[in-house]
Automatic annotation (TrEMBL):
Protein name: diguanylate cyclase
GO CC annotation, single: plasma membrane
Gene Ontology biological process terms from the UniProt entry: cell adhesion involved in single-species biofilm formation; negative regulation of bacterial-type flagellum-dependent cell motility
Uppermost EC category: transferase
Amino acid sequence: MAVLTLVTLRWHGHQKADQLDEAEARDDFDRLTATFQLSTLGLKETLKSWANWTELYDYVVDRSTSRFLEEELGAVELAEAGVDFLTLLDLSGHVIGMTEVPGVGGDLPATEEMIRQSVYFSAYVKSSQGASGCGAIKARTQVAMVCFGPIFNSQGQGHARGYIALGQWVNEDTIRRVSQVTGLMFDIVDVPTQARKEPPPATAAAMTSNMFRKDAVQVIEHDSQRELELRSPLTGLLGQDIAEIHMRWPRRLRQMVDTSSDITEMVVLTLIVLSGALLMLLLDRVVVRRLNLLRVELASIVDSRRWAGEVSIRGGDELAALARYTHELVLIVRQQVQELEDLSQTDALTGLPNRRAFDERLEHILAQYARQKLSAALILMDVDHFKKYNDTYGHPAGDEALKVIARCLRSALRRELDLPARLGGEEFGVLLQGVSAEQACAAAQHIRLAMQELALTHVANPPLMVMTMSLGVAVVTPQDTATTLYQRADDALYQAKTQGRNRVHLA
């Protein structure tokens, strides 16, 4: 009966562990693909800056005399910006300029591929107003992330005069960075050329930035039963499968069940041999019930998905030691889960809360306002001429400047309810509770002056020649949602910029 009980426990544990392992593996795979797509944020920011570059706008309008592309966006400049290739298109989608950082042996695979696919870009921009987006392409055996969008002047106004596409190879460094962020091991595997189908030009308007399809994920069990492999096709801009992403995922819960079951079997069988009939009589009370309690408690902890709950420790025998070690293991995992959650809401560069934490607090503030009418305000701000600062002093200096700004915000905001955050790039935000419009503007002015008094040299920011900030303030109203409040604060920030920068504007 004892052996039968142990076999049943192991089988049931395997069944439960296999279900949970596969569900957790799919969740991790979704997180991996989401992080992979988020890796294009840097490329998007570069595209956003360059697409509103007045000199580039002028060059696209009249290319007859200017050598702007060769002098300002050559291979060296692309490499310094972390971009591997650039394509300029006119309003009809025809290629009018290409720059690529040469590969090994001087190869230019992206140039060949972008020219070959120009017919699809042409059909796409003709069928899409203000075409923009990010996706993947394949050049020879290499996969690249590509972001494209319309070119405007520095004010972002008027009509577009062309399109710009920036590309970045998905190489071993990209895979390593995503693996470090997610803690997951994966590879990009080539799809043979004969397995890909090229769409006709008439369907080019169906370009997609959805690189991963959840319904196409395959879960493969290896013979060792200690590892799962998840596979999903990587879809290119034209809708064809250009590669596959393979993620290896260790079956942790099954291994834990095996380890726990092995220890339990050893203890029980030893007790059976030594104690004989007496232990057979006491087995249900001494071993099985406690094992069932441990199993139920572990199942409850695992099912909570947040490692909440406790493992009971009774007695001083081997089972109690197992429960104690299990309890300590649960505490360690719970602490690591909490640390991971904290990291997911913290900006890695500045240490401030990130956009996710900021949005959660904003939703909470809006709910509190709806219930208690507790006044609140949102301040959006960004650094004046920060791109020029990066161009002048370099991106490492820009990163250090962002850290200084974060410290400035912390010192300028003393109230416990005030929440500063980095929202992306050089954009920061502050949430204030229990303040009027005048108090919110005063807080914004205090931040602006504190930043100005730091006197960080910025020769491209006249007339003060120091780093300054423009701020937009919006006070919560009964009609506000998170979207409308952001929009009003952003409009106020835009007004502060258009009125000369280094100032505060109230929505």
